[in-house]
Amino acid sequence: MIGRMTADEEAADAHEGAGERRARRLAAWNTARRRLGDASAEGTIAGRLARLAEEGAAVHDLSRSPDVYGDGIVADLEERTADLLGTEAAVFFPTGTMAQQVALRCWADRTGSPTVALHPLSHPERHERHALTQLTGLRPVHPTTEPRLPTAEEVWELPEPFGTLMLELPLRDAGFVLPTWDELVETVDAARQREAVVHFDGARLWECAPHFGRTLPEIAGLADSVYVSYYKSLGGLSGAALAGSSSLVEEARAWRHRYGGQVFQQWPAALSALVGLERELPRLPEYVDHAKVVADALRRGLEDAGVPWFRIHPEVPHTHQFQVWLPYGPEELTEAGVRQAEEDGTVLFRVWEASGPPGLAVTEVTVAAPGLLWSPEDVREALSAFLARLPGLPARG
Prior knowledge:
Number of strands: 13
CATH superfamily of the largest domain: Type I PLP-dependent aspartate aminotransferase-like (Major domain)
Distance between the termini: 48 Å
Oligomer: single chain
Largest sheet: 7 strands, mixed
Number of helices: 15
């Protein structure tokens, strides 16, 4: 038919449209005056470089030579990370995906078991394109499918042997949820009784301390190995670390090289990580406390607006991040947020995704330094302006 696009043309057009939408969103978020938190990908290259140079000078001697294959500033970061977590050593990785694949592979070799017990909502199962099975040759089993961490009873009653128990703290896709400290200890003990080792996916471990009421070394000390991220919560450019015993770390270094992670220079990522550890890590308890204030204000505002169904999950956040669910499509919710940023200079919500039954969408809310300036009244005012940009509230049930 004349004038009809081919499949390749339609795909190219869709790709171009997606790029334009992303550029518009970033422009709106970058120029907004008020936001609850800063996204790590926002800003300009020039601005990010200037900020890194200014903040980096306060945490590292910038007259030193750049790193080469993991020495210098990268080695300094590894030592700092091990000290903070109370482990014998730590090794820097360019990505958390690589760090965890290496950790689980090392433990499979050491335990003689290729079976890893983990949650089906955990990062290796949801966001790594099945690298656990495709690259590492490991076999996952699930102690539970409930949207929470597995209990000690579920670990103990898993009907087949496993060599490693992996726990994601917090479990992001379930709503950044955590168990209680006693529950976590009992679950770890159950794995030990099953003669398994324990690995923590601690991409966001930094902000778990307030919920548990324990120090980072106490939390990390429960596990045989811990992975932490430098850009989640800390605002670094990229990078991660695997922490544990000196022997495990040395083995992980060898596998990092085999996996292609022996990068020539990584000083920008390492420097930004040191800045995050110095500036953001001490403030995370404030963010966690204020996330509870923001979540409560959103709940009260949605009730007052007459939204017939919504959910703040967890109702009292366990960390400085939580989910908001609303009965609208993700496109119209995302568009309402972009328009609010463009017209009011306020960012309350960012990208929404379809999840659960049809007609529902979910977004993640992160409360960081900018959000500390928001009072409950500010949150409810911004929420009212956001809802006013939707096509109309569904009728009350």
